[in-house]
Structure formats: C-alpha cells, structure tokens
Amino acid sequence: MAKGKLDELRDQIDRIDDQILELLNRRAEVVKEVGRTKVNSSQEFYVPGREQAIFERLTRNTGSFPADGVRRVFREIISASLALEQPMKIAYLGPPATFTHQAALRQFGLSAQLVAQKSIPAVFEEVCRGRAPYGVVPVENSTEGVVSHTLDMFIRSELKINAEILLEIEHNLLSLTGRMEDVRKVVSHPQALAQCRQWLEENLPDTALVDVGSTALAAQMASEDESVAAIAGEVAATMYGLKTVKQKIQDNPNNLTRFLVIGRNIPAPSAQDKTSVMFSVKDEPGILYSMLKPFSNRGINLSKIESRPMKKKAWEYVFFLDMDGHVQDAKVAEAIEELRGCCQELRVLGSYARSR
Q1: How confident is the model over 284-335, as pLDDT tens digits?
Q2: Annotated catalytic residue, options 99, 259, 295, 319
Q3: What SS3 class is residue 159?
Q4: What confidence score (pLDDT) does residue 255 get?
Q5: What mean pLDDT comes out for the span 177-185?
Q6: Rounded distance, CA 50 to CA 304, Å?
Q7: Terminal-to-terminal C-alpha distance of the chain
Q8: Which CATH class is domain 273-353?
Q9: What residue stretches are annotated with the Prephenate dehydratase domain (predicted)?
Q10: Given its phi and psi angles, is residue 241 left (phi above 0), alpha (psi -120 to 50 degrees) or beta?
Q11: Which residue of the set 150, 215, 257, 275 is catalytic?
Q12: Active-site residue, 259 included
C-alpha cells in the first residue's frame, strides 16, 4: 500500500519536472530574443539591477520552497540564460576555490567562464584591455577593513563599478579524514588565521599554525597530507575532496566581505542604487565641512568615507565616498557637481544596484 502511494507521488514529481523543463525551454527562447534585441540596440548584456529585481520579486514567495533555494536555482537559470545571449568571461582574483571565486560564482553562476588572475591589478588589466567584460575583486572586510590594492587601482584606472557582492565569510576547518585528533598542523591565508585565532587557541592550542598564500593553496596542502588541516570555504572543500572537521570557526559570526564587479560602463538605474566617487581636495580650512555639505543639504545618505594617501605628494589624500542613489538622480548629480567645486580631481567610480 505504502509503495503504491510512493509511486504515485513520484509520478507527480516527474510530471511537474517535465512542466518545469518545458517552461525553461520557453524561457530560453524568449532570452534569445532579448539577446537579439540588445544587439540591435547596442545595449549591455549584463544588467545586474534587473537580476536583483528578479531575485527580490521571486523570493517574496511564501510557499514551501525556501527563499535561499529560490535564489540559488534562479541564479543558475539566469547564468545559463546569459550564456545563451553571449558567453560571459569573468576575470577574478584567484586562485580557484578562494572566497573571491565563491563570490564570482554567486554573482555569475556556473555557466559563466571564470578566469583566475594572480593579482588585483591583473584583473583590472583583463577588463581594461577587453579580454574579459567584467572582473571581480575584494574591496573590504568587516573585520580586517579595506583592501588597499583595490582602492589604489581605482586611482590608476578608468573602469567602473557595475555591482557589489556581499559574501558571508564562513571559515571551516577541513582535512582529508575530518577528524580533529588527526590534525597536527593548520594552514591558511594570514587573514583567515587571524579571524579564527580565538577558536584555534581554545581548541588546538598546541597545533602549529602556518601562513600560506591563499585559502585555496591551504586546501590543496590539506588534500596531500592527513595531518594537515586547512581553514577555507565550502568551494575549497568540494574542489579538493576534503571533509569538514568543524564548521564556522571564525571568531566574529558577522564576518562579511564586500566584492566589486568592475566593467567599462555605468549600469542604468535600478530600484535601489549606490554611487561611489573618488576625489582629492584642496588643503584649506573647513574643507571637510565643504565636502559633506552638498550631501547634507540634499538629504543624501553617505554610507562610507575612506581615505588613501596620494603616492605623488606626502600628506595629501584621495577620498572614496559611497552614497545612496544613482548618478542620474537629480539630487545626486547636483551634489557631486557642487563637491567638484572644492576638488582638485573628482571621478564617479560607478552607480550600481545595492546588494541586499
């Protein structure tokens, strides 16, 4: 009796799967037409604001399927659809199985061609020379602060920010056996070790800690020696066939890293945007007030201000500022123009959909 009921339910699932596949094929035909329309009107293939709107609309689903699962499924549907329109080549700070790789997968899906680069300048170079339309680089971590190499590259490059990715950084202890008692050495990137220092002191106080160039290299080393454990993410575990000794060993549970998608153009406005600018100011009394006044007077929220020393002259600085709104919004445009009046140089780095 139970077997008959089970067979009936499985038949229902098969019929539903057939319907899903039929709808995916219908969707693919519409996507191809979208691609032809974009070519004819010289529009960008990749529109991150449109993707964000799709995710937000679909994750309002109140059914049994979890919202995170909806996002993951449609991430891959959109990725495969973009590949139908035009193959997507994405440069990212490698090697594979790092958190930047994980961020690129989350943004572009498995159907994109992800190409690892050895450095942040190399990612900028690939996009600048047109060898990849987009790149993914880290820009800041909630625990460790800004990635200075990325900010420095914006000083030298004309590339624009097209999107941001917020990735929760979960550090896992990984090994071949998955057993704590086998661990004699822990290897990882210095930042990962620092972010797990307290857990390591409490749980593996006498174990050697070794800095290596990346979490991916650490995972590779762990895959070659049962006595070595790596601190790395879930992609590294899958890629190198490792078992989890312990999940989420980072000391700060709210450990987020922000990544940027860089490209050559500024995307069109979406429902909720952020604009980033870079500028240097004249050294004079009251300059900080003059910098902030254009935004305060127009009620524009500033979500971040960061400074970097200029390489050309000591004690002069470049400022990086993030604000709510798109550069095409009248208030934002007016505030930026007013700010320009007290700057030696000002450049809009991008307007892009806010990651949520």
Answers
A1: 777 788 888 999 999 999 998 888 877 666 557 788 999 999 999 999 999 9
A2: 259
A3: coil
A4: 82
A5: 93
A6: 25
A7: 48
A8: alpha beta
A9: 89-264
A10: left
A11: 257
A12: yes
